[in-house]
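Can't paste images in this forum, so I'm doing it all in text. The chain is below; anyone willing to post the predicted structure tokens underneath?
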Amino acid sequence: MNRYAHITGWGYAVPDQILTNHDLSLIVDTSDEWIVTRTGIRERRIADKKESTASLATDASIRALHHAGVKPAEIQLIIVATSTPEHIFPATACLVQDQIGASKAGAFDLSAACSGFIYALDMATQAIRTGSLDSALVIGSETLSRFVDWADRNTCVLFGDGAGAIVLQASEEPGGVLSSTLHSDGSGGDLLILPAGGSKQPANEFTISQNLHTIQMNGREVFRFATRVLVQATQDAVHKAGLNLSDIHLIIPHQANQRIIDAATRGLSIAPERVFINVERYGNTSTASIPIAVCEAAAQGKLNPEDNVVFVGFGAGLTWGASVIRWSSPFLTRRKIHPARYRLPARLRSFLLRLLRKIEGWIWGNWQ
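Text version of the structure:
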């Protein structure tokens, strides 16, 4: 019998702190008009010292679980797509697993830059469709402001922080994720890159003095690449799903730049109202941009059961991809848990596990 992966819950989290274009004009040579004309962005969210990629991902996940009416212990897989992980290791997904109390979940991070959410969605979908698992949590989370050169007006105006999450559940009812297409071209890896901090260029005085731990981008080449692949990936995924563009109710693209989205819209020959855009309020949140937009589109009544929706993105790597989804309703089979009630059991469980580990270490040390 066929199995399908349905999106049954969604949630997002963004920092409270807002950085407007006017605020940026006070620290770098730019203006609101210059930024809006070139990007469509008017403001973005910036994480404070207490916020991180893991904390934003946790908040978004709890909201998604609450919306789906799913308990953390029912989640079997957690994937965090991110370009700004909490650490190189352990995986940010493992930190989220601990903080939400998903005691039965495997967890890993996925790195495909701004396309990461599409990649993670496909990975979780395939695991569900093959019967490997019944439920997954797919998250896009970023704190890009920690990796921006605030003296570079070509990049610092673009990026913001935030997280979005969706719950995927197995069902024999046709629908959910209908198709995905994933692509890459490593020959363009230098067009959008964070050069240092990995094994090739570990942190040292030189890498720090040369700002090699900040985002470097060839904006012109990325623009050309993006406008082409957004159209290509959308068409490929729609064809793979056995549909036509006329069957698609809404397209939710990666929110990188208004001009890129407008060019892709013209390339697809579709009406602008069939494309969801919120880049003006959040900027480019990389892997988080599509799930944040999904949450807002649903809240605004633009996603309804049985609607065919396209998620499409592109990013460093170079990577790009798209998914076609037949929108679902939550599987409301039980009373929802209040979001606040997710945290205390998770914290207690984590505390007890850490305490048990210390006791075992003490016993083992004395026994030897």
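The mean pLDDT is 96. The chain has twelve helices and 13 strands.
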